Automatic annotation (TrEMBL):
Taxonomic classification: Bacteria, Pseudomonadati, Pseudomonadota, Alphaproteobacteria, Hyphomicrobiales
Superkingdom, taxonomy of origin: Bacteria
Region (Disordered): 1-39
UniProt domain Polysaccharide pyruvyl transferase: residue ranges: 80-249
UniProt protein name: Polysaccharide pyruvyl transferase family protein
Keywords from the UniProt entry: Transferase
Length: 318
């Protein structure tokens, strides 16, 4: 699926308004929307899907957000005794990231999205899926094409991280200043870009500091919070910039389709955006349009009931 056109002598890409054109896998439209099965979770454990890189010991900060966020939300709502564990064979929570291709019978979706590389074809065999919120309208349309109800509650839950982990990020500020020095402009590559094209970052433009996506989420957030500009081919680098109110520009990943980026941009109300082929191009470009993001609907959509949980506190507002 390709969106947009090339600008500036093929140096930048500015997508046009995207449409989800892939049909339902069975070629039909469901007459009755699918609903979630109830009672699939025991109220004592949240089984959470958590993608990890194949390379042993390697992590990607964006994919580390879901267990951290879910744990923090449970703790803030009087559910510290509820365990969060990696998903097994049964129903699971899909939270944060382009992971809907992993959805199976009885699963619960909170803020996750469709990956442009892997269309979630297995959903044609799923009868019960509870969708509390999604990353953006492209994911919503994709789910609707499979016959599922998907509310218009948009936004990557990573937007919650800077506020929910405010104290930890503040404490990490001095650590990252010692580690990186003065870093007004930071570049956060997508994990595949950094892993498979290391020569791309051997010599960055002067004044640009590389922040590896294998850095912890708290340290990445601390770097973003003190930056003047964020350039990123990592989606969650852009998410963190938006959450921290820091200007940002999108660098085109060599490996990631732009579907997930456009899905996120449209979900937060950013109707104009550009992707730049080089970091040098990004340095000369305009910032992505600033957006005012209300994170309360994302937090309020956390699927306590679908997970069999009853919060003893009401701390769902930031």
């Amino acid at each position: 699926m390709i969106f947009g056109r090339f600008l500036k002598g093929n140096k930048s890409i500015s997508p046009s308004h995207p449409q989800t054109t892939t049909p339902r896998p069975d070629g039909k439209k469901s007459e009755t929307p699918h609903h979630a099965a109830r009672g699939a979770f025991d109220g004592k454990t949240v089984s959470l899907y958590h993608w990890t890189p194949r390379d042993a010991g390697q992590t990607n900060f964006g994919d580390e957000l879901s267990p951290l966020l879910v744990r923090r939300i449970l703790d803030r709502n009087g559910l510290a005794d509820v365990a969060v564990q990696p998903s097994g064979d049964g129903p699971k929570l899909l939270a944060v990231g382009s992971v809907l291709q992993q959805a199976r019978e009885g699963d619960v979706v909170w803020g996750a999205g469709v990956n442009g590389k892997n269309w979630p074809r297995r959903l044609k065999t799923v009868a019960n899926l509870h969708v509390a919120s999604v990353r953006g309208p492209l994911t919503q349309r994709a789910l609707q094409r499979f016959g599922f109800e998907a509310p218009a509650i948009f936004g990557d839950p990573g937007l919650l991280f800077p506020e929910l982990f405010r104290d930890e990020i503040a404490q990490a500020g001095e650590t990252v200043r010692r580690k990186y020095g003065k870093a007004d402009v930071i570049y956060i590559p997508n994990l595949n870009d950094e892993s498979l094209l290391p020569e791309r970052f051997a010599l960055l433009p002067e004044g640009v500091t590389l922040v590896s996506p294998t850095t912890t989420p708290v340290e990445v957030a601390a770097m973003v919070a003190q930056a003047r500009l964020v350039i990123s081919s990592s989606l969650h680098g852009l998410v963190f910039a938006d959450a921290c109110g820091v200007p940002c520009r999108a660098h085109l990943s060599a490996f990631e389709p732009i579907f997930k980026y456009v899905d996120y941009f449209e979900g937060v109300g950013r109707s104009q955006y550009a992707f730049h082929l080089t970091i040098e191009d990004a340095l000369e470009a305009a910032d992505l349009a600033r957006v005012q993001i209300d994170t309360r609907p994302i937090l309020q959509a956390f699927p306590f009931e679908a997970l069999g949980l009853i919060p003893s506190l009401d701390d769902r507002n930031i």
